[in-house]
Amino acid sequence: MSTRSSSTRTAIRSTSFGSIWTDDGVGLGRGVGGGGALNTEPAVISDDRRGAVRRAAKSWTEQLIDVSGNNKLLFYRPLKVGTLDVTPGVEGLDLPELLRLRGGSSVRLSRLFPDDEARAGAAKRLRNIAAKAQENDEERGISTLFLAWGMATWTNPNPSRSTPMAPVFLVPIVARRRNASGDDFDLEVAGEASCNPTLVHYLFTQLSTSVNADAVLAAAEAVEQPLGNPEAGLDAIRLACSAVPGFAVNERVVIGNFSFAKMPMVRTSSRTRRPSRSTT
Q1: How many CB atoms lie within 10 A of CB 122?
Q2: pTM above 0.85, yes or no
Q3: Residue pair 74/198 in contact by the 8 Å Cβ criterion
Q4: Quick one: what percent of the chain has pLDDT higher than 90?
Q5: Beta strand pairing status for 84-85 and 248-257?
Q6: Quick check: 56 and 269 in contact, CB under 8 A?
Q7: Nearest-angstrom CA–CA distance, 279 and 247
């Protein structure tokens, strides 16, 4: 048997049983061997090993989060038939119906866009959006249909790349056809609003700016409506990012497909703790 394969097995045994890390970063020593007794002395981890773990976690996180212009959660671009603009003031939109949708009520597309011409265009877009959402659900097992409220932008540190445009609030919704032709839909909120986790992660890791997503959401709350006052929430993130060059937020609102399925893994990687003791 080669020396390499033997050392590999030794490394695996050491990693699996040599030290057990608890959530607070304290090593529990050997879990097997030595008569099976549990050694509660903190594990001694070298600076080199700690650095290797930190670099590995950072590399893994960067691979999970796409910070290029391809990520719609950071560089949103309206699609010709894959985006439905429902920004207050857009032509043909009934604002009270939009506010009812935001508040959790089921709203018909035909009431959201009561004008015949505007409704026809909206229905065409929503058919494409809903079809893509269904495809993502059936093939990838993820829900991607959202009402995005507010768009944030800032000066890209790399001037050769796209201008950022990131949704601030994401509200999961469902769109159900009312008939076979798909010229009308029922729209309804399907879950709790969130502050774009990819935006929050990017601001912290790339722009050294910490945003308390829970506080931003709390600012946007109104009586019995989690996103009843989005303007206050947008003001909160403006304040938190006041030191970010070129940071600004507009109140654009769209319905479209957004995916952040990998964010739970990113949070796990970011929370990885390391033992506090080291050798020199």
Answers
A1: 25
A2: no
A3: yes
A4: 60
A5: antiparallel
A6: no
A7: 43
